[in-house]
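yo

u said u wanted the structure for the complex thing, so here. seqs first:
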Amino acid sequence: MSKPIVRLVTCGSVDDGKSTLIGRLLVETDSIPHDSVASARLVRRSGSTIKAGEIDFSLLTDGLEAEREQGITIDVAYRSMFLLNGRRLIIADAPGHEQYTRNMVVAASRADVALVLLDASRGIRTQTLRHLMICSLMGIGRIAIVINKLDAVGYAEEIYEKIKRDLTKSINRLEIKDFQFIPVSALVGDNIVLRSEAMPWYTGPTLLEYIQYWEKSPAGRSRARLGIQMISRAENFRGVAGTVINGEFTVGDEVITLPTRRRATIARIVTFDGDLERAEESRAVTLVLEPDVDATRGDVIELAEDFTEPADRFNATVVWLGEPELIHSRSYLLISGSTQVPAMVTKIRHKVNINTGKHEVTQTLKMNEIGVVEIATDALIALDTYKSCRESGNFILVDRSTMNTVGAGMIEHVLRRSSNITKQEYEINQQSRALQKNQRARVLWLTGLPGSGKSTIANALEKQLFAMGLHSYVLDGDNVRLGLNKDLGFIKEDRAENVRRVSEVARLMSDAGLIVIVALVSPFAADRDQARSLFDQGEFLEVWINTSADVCTIRDPKGLYKKAAAGSIPNLTGVGQEYEPPANAELVLDGTAPIEENVKRLIEIIL
Amino acid sequence: MLGSPQILQMLEDESIEILREAAAAFRKPVLLYSIGKDSSVLLHLARKAFYPGPIPFPMLHVDTTWKFREMISFRDQIVKEYGLNLLVHTNQAGVDEKVNPFTSGISEYTRVMKTVALRQALDEHGFDVAIGGSRRDEERSRAKERIFSVRESGHRWDPRQQRPELWRTYNPRLAPGQSMRVFPLSDWTELDVWHYIYLNEIPVNPLYFAKERLVVTRGQQLIMVDDERYPLLENEKPELRQIRFRTLGCYPLTAAVESTANSVKEILDEVMEVKLSERATRLIDGDKEDSMEKKKSEGYF
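structre next:
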């Protein structure tokens, strides 16, 4: 299938002459306005050796102020270019340095063709191997290995041949099938658009030829798929609107909604320009289903005869993009297309050394690191493997408090474990258990600094509830650490796991119809949000015991602050570790107010 | 060189996907309608994206009070024809202080009447996403901007803190104080826009077509004298010239080009020939390299 738009990622650094190469491609295909070209003849970087009046091609591609100052490329820049066979090329220009690996991953994520650039006079470098590895990881099918600055080495064939020989081994190891070595000089213009006179020994395609004759290879096993973005409603009309991600749909096809597994037939394929008989890949359409099954945004539609089995456990390769490192057991938001679901990394199998490809043991992933992990989602989701289809096998991870995109994932395979455990439905439910006790099941989550008064308040509250004939239980942070959580310490990861376990126990107790009082420092907003996500609206009440650090230090009921001051507790919240105050707590209590008053306010929100 | 119609089909489908995502993933979207050709295309795409339903969000026009008169009449005509919900906002404080393009200085005028006005309108209505027609080929800092582009509090764009954007999986989530800009036309070029207008017979503003209009010359640029507020030099008499506009904005800041093109087909031919970046006809961008990046970090669209 011929795609009218080809997407290219360019990898390499300024030192390799990348900006010059792209600049030349743009100018020689007449893809850039003439006044921009004129300005590149006039403007000069400080220290530039390019003669006045000649085009400094590199000026045509660098955008941001900081980049021009430093002479390097920091973020991804996008350019449109004409290919000479009537197609369109969209270039995503990625920075080359190791600290910008994440930007390169961004640029590579949509690319059909990659251009890996290296300098003939310097030969293969670590970054060349890193670029090839990332291209292979991101599933790019066609790679041009462009050896630049041949003019600086006298157009010597041996140099080209040696690089080619040495690099082919790595390429075979990475299982890259479609690749081509191209000797060029971006500065002079050899083998970019015009064939070089200076290298008669090279008979392969020019760079432009290699790019523009790319064709999408038919995928091995690809299922027809449409992601539902929204429900389209009009008078006497209801349809599901979305884009055909893969394959095609025809009127009359029997389809299934995922993960909900409702079957229906495609009655109409609606567009503004008239109904279609067939919706091909990449078309944005609206399907009318018969019967009009209950589908929502985030669901996926596939053909009923062969569909992706929804699951909630996956093996995935993850590229870490966030400044704060990956935390095991912390809840992130997983987004794939229009589907959003809370998820956590349950295991980090290993990280991959991006320069050598070797596997290394690790407890976490830092920014720009790549690892293989196990992911568990809170709900079933129909993800396929990245290898079989990029758009149905990708996801991003979002930090639930900053909402930043912190991880990019590619599904390696689906773990079937989850489908062997079926949730048992019992006829006596939470509501009937609570009703029997004349109460409503609740979780009161008391959070605050050590010494803020959580345990004292919890104790007084429980006494009051007991006197009122209500059934409750206190889950106290210290007590839980004596048993269930005695294997956990106080580093960030362990705190996340501590909160996760306590929230799961609270869920069981709430399901038993109890009023659960949790007294736990729980310093991180993301962990508390994750706890909240386990409960129905109104069931979980976050209560911030707001007592100043000074007061807590003076109270110091367990002598913790003294020990921290002496240096024997490095991770004490409020001292060695920060406390993130809740932004949307249901109730904020002043920890220095009379205890009866605080209990009264708590009783009010419970009842 | 014109690309194949298949290119436009693919661009259209991707833009529709982006528009639907912006409409469905946010609480309160708005489409910034600036009356120009890109807005015309964006509006047309929005009608397609939600068909047979109506466009599920209002349009917003930031009126500086210095727009061409023909822009306002065209705007009102389109609103009526398509039954659109249009909001118009002007920075009244700026009007009261008589901020204008002549004596206030161009960058101060732009800041008060465009940037601040836009921030006021977005805050007043509590829009969490604003959809705009900017393209990556317009200007260098645009080339680096994401399709879903986060604004920090005060609507600031921080180019160094852009969220990674991968595949076609967009992150529409916002932290408190943040808002989003969405650019469905990111991958389109000026030529694509005209080609699409041609093939879809989309109505565009008459100022794009060549006609005899009253102009004065300022430096190298031809400025149309659209009303009596334009300060003429002593003994200066505006002259009639056959001109048209490549971009539309505030009339004292938008230069015309001499042209005879008076159909979309002729404009298409001209754009293929001329090869001048369209922002060359905008006075506000030319004052300093990188001025666009600067304005955007203050909250400009």
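The radius of gyration of chain B is 19 Å. Chain B has a mean pLDDT of 89.
cya
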